[in-house]
Design goal:
With about 240 residues, the protein is an alpha+beta fold. It is about 40% helix and about 10% strand. The strands form four sheets. Strands 1-2 form a two-stranded antiparallel ribbon. It has a two-stranded antiparallel ribbon with strand order 3-4. Strand 3 and strand 4 form a beta hairpin.
């Protein structure tokens, strides 16, 4: 196809610079995160074990797709893990999603460094540095890094737990935690939309799964948050309701 790479129905011109490759990586990552978080019910339903080998694709336009693998050999880009649907019903749902997340991280890196093959050593190092500043898909889906950050924060305060609700004041978010610093949330992503933490926005943390959310994504206002002692996100509330 000459100088254009096909994105399963989307024509995408290969990124050339480290910055452009990182933008491509970040967009594909956002698509995968949306599939495994905000659109997880739709994603789960599409991964029918009765169907043939399916893959999860994330595209540069931030769209995701569950589809059969590319037929041409060799493929224009590295392919994601094959047959993610087969293990869906044989594993705990959360473990299965974490497994898909791990394979997705591997695929995202392989695509990025496929594009980066023509970069020099310093540019490849700079590209990896930018990528490494973001949480992996696995860390977001499993909540691993949020849990580690919360445990460190708890240890720093003599084991005293911090309230997770953040209250907005004149456009600036202020923590009701005991002197909590914004650096604790520097790599936190919204469990619904995948957006990166911003101190100028209102956020709220779930006391069950310990993930963080934009207030607007879970329909919680700062005023409403003040009356909540223990917040349960929609996902945890739905799990309790099904039990």
């Amino acid at each position: 196809m000459g100088d254009a790479a096909s994105g399963r129905g989307h024509v995408v011109y290969p990124p050339r610079s480290a910055e452009d490759i990182f933008k491509d990586y970040r967009a594909r990552r956002s698509a995968i995160l949306r599939a495994l978080t905000h659109d997880v019910e739709d994603f789960y339903a599409q991964c029918d074990p009765e169907k043939e080998n399916l893959c999860l694709y994330g595209y540069a336009n931030e769209a995701w797709e569950v589809a059969l693998p590319a037929e041409e050999v060799p493929t224009e880009l590295p392919e994601p893990a094959l047959g993610i649907n087969f293990a869906r019903d044989g594993m705990n749902r959360r473990d299965w999603l974490a497994l898909v997340a791990v394979h997705s991280d591997s695929w995202l890196l392989s695509v990025a460094f496929y594009y980066a093959a023509r970069l020099n050593r310093n540019d490849r190092k700079r590209l990896f540095g930018m990528i490494n500043e973001l949480q992996t898909v696995f860390e977001v889906v499993s909540g691993a890094r949020q849990q580690q950050s919360k445990e460190r924060s708890s240890m720093d305060n003599g084991g005293r737990a911090k309230p997770s609700v953040k209250i907005e004041n004149n456009g600036k978010a202020t923590d009701e935690a005991y002197g909590e610093d914004d650096s604790d949330h520097g790599e936190t992503l919204c469990g619904t939309c995948g957006g990166i933490y911003n101190a100028d926005e209102f956020w709220i943390g779930c006391d069950i799964c310990e993930r963080w959310y934009h207030g607007k994504c879970v329909k919680i206002t700062p005023a409403k948050a003040e009356s909540i002692k223990h917040y349960k996100c929609p996902s945890c509330s739905n799990k309790r309701a099904r039990q």
